Amino acid sequence: MESRVLFIEDNSINRHRLRECFKGHGMQVEEAEDGRTGLALATRLLPQAIVISTTLPDMAWTEVAQRLRAVTRTRHIYLMLLADRDIHKERLSGLEWADDFVASPFDPEEVSLRIRNALRRANSANFTDPTTGLPASHLIQEQLRHLLQSPEGEWALLRLHVARLEPFREKYGFQAADDFLRGVARILAEALANDTVEDDFLGYSGHDDFIVVTHRDRAPGLEAEVLEAFKKMLSAHYDSPEFEQGFIVLDGNQVPLATLRSHCTTSAEGPFYDIRSLSEALVA
User: Fold this and answer.
1) How many Å apart are CA 81 and CA 275, to the nearest integer?
2) Helical (H) or strand (E) element with 254
3) What is the pLDDT of residues 120-168, one digit of tens each?
């Protein structure tokens, strides 16, 4: 599992200690020195875990945590608070919004272990996908149930399928295919971060399928934006000659490059009575 963690911490020494430890365990590290930068990175990168200092220079940590919990795309992210000292009242207040609390002086190895264990549990319970780090089947089902409660809402449900990824996987290997899926996840997260719709949802249901919930008016532009970004991404994953010729060769056969296929269902196409009927509309 190649997880990404975001440190929202103004103390450069703390960031350095955490960075070296987490990178040593093979995790991707992103950093922000203040709350506003951290919030922007969180919505654009969708890390699997965020460590938040309780002494940020620009805003209260409570506001950062509350805003992360208020946005659908970031609500599932594991939050850990990092405090200068262990005050019982602050610990209780922190655990109202965050999943864990650590006070200085802290052991980076302990922080890393706590987060890795939490992410492992989330993956095994199908809350998050270990490859993309996005919400997986359990949270996707929860989101679909929410849509069923708004039969006349202004929502759109998109299924984005990476077609012909299996030949790519066979040619370049499983690790390269996982990197490809993470690249698609990044494209989708960045596209959703370009608007101000806080109820957007992004998940990965497996089988090379991504699920997006957004506002009905936003869906056409989002699809176009993502498909264009996907085309540009291809050159980073295929060898240059194969990308230029538009196909790979497997067992003597020419196989076209992977492509992204999108299908959109809106509330106007309902009524949908259960998750099954809603899911079937995505593959119709």
Assistant:
1) 36
2) strand 253-256
3) 999 888 899 999 999 999 999 999 999 998 888 899 999 999 999 999 9
Instruction: Specify the number of domains making up the chain.
Output: 2
Helices (H), 151-270: 165-172, 174-193, 219-233, 240-245
Between helices 108-124 and 12-24, what is the axis angle to 10°? 50
Picking from 90, 124, 158, the residue at the C-terminal end of a domain is 124
More confidently predicted of 89 and 168: 168
Domain that holds residue 183: 137-282
Residue at which a domain ends, from 65, 100, 124: 124
Q: What is the CA radius of gyration of the chain?
A: 20
Per the structure block, which two tokens stand in for 70?
Answer: 């208020």
Residue found under tokens 């934006």: 225
Tokens 């240059």 map to which residue?
240
Residues 25 and 68 in one domain: yes
**Residue 35, domain CATH:** 3.40.50.2300
Kindly report, residue by residue over 5-21, the tens digit of the pLDDT: 999 999 999 999 999 99
Q: In which band, very low, low, confident or very high, does the pLDDT at 284 lie, cut at 50, 70 and 90? A: low
Name the DSSP letter for residue 72. Answer: T
Q: Do residue 23 and residue 119 come from a single domain?
A: yes
Residues 97 and 214 in one domain: no
Which contacts qualify for 101-107: CB closer than 8 Å, 24 or more apart? 104/14, 106/82
For residues 108 and 175, membership in a common domain is answered with no
List, in sequence order, every residue forming a beta bridge with 253; answer none if it has no partner.
250
